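Bumping with the actual sequence this time:
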Amino acid sequence: MKLSSRVALCVLATIALVGVFADVLASPQPLMARTADGFFLLPAVTAPGHVFTAAEGWAVWAPLRGASELVYGARTLVLASVLSLTLSLAIGVPLGAVTGTRGGLFDALLSRSVELSGALPTLVVLILARSFASLSALSAFVLVVGTVRGLELARLVRGEVLRVQGQDFMVAARALGAGSLAQLRRHVLPHALGPVLVSGALTAAYVVGLEAALSFVGLGLGPELPSWGALLGRHFALAPAAAISITTLSLFMVADGLDDALSARRGRP
């Protein structure tokens, strides 16, 4: 993997650690406050409406380099990304393997499902899921994004399965009497792992951008979950915009590095 991709991977690991240890890193108290009674360093309380407090009561300035909402926003981002990515993998890998192996009706159903998911705007589907399915904002987001990206991943895995099926080692495996499950486990899925990893990085980048956009227009994961996109909708734009840009760029760089490394391993230009 290229040096730039390794640096991007370290950046993503740092963001993930910040999200996991948000309770340790973030402080509920502002670093400083100016009131009618004077100027205070590290005041003891942070009340809604405070000059250094966001609309939902989160302290904006924290002792450890940044806003507490930014730190907790990293946790929200990690949670949404991991859940959406897990669901997309759970849907895409088995479905793509089955359709690529069986073909026929399964293949036709997958193709129509992918076309349908591509025709419906994700924003509309999210609104419908939250309105008619009585789901929480986070559950609806994970369900819709995970399903849509899972169907796209299934089509990718299907293509890899069809590509591998015609290789000489697969012909030899069938000649030696290997069953369908053995072929999938030992030969097909290992060759499909690379595209799956690249797709996973792109899915995480998609989650970052979509969640930020939805939160910016007030359709995010709710006020109980701090979000970088929600901060963009207020007067704290620079820090969350930088965080979103750095995270998305790092994910794209990791995906590009994985693709280059896997292409070189396969001997492709």
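The tokens above came from a reply further down the thread. The longest strand covers residues 32-35.
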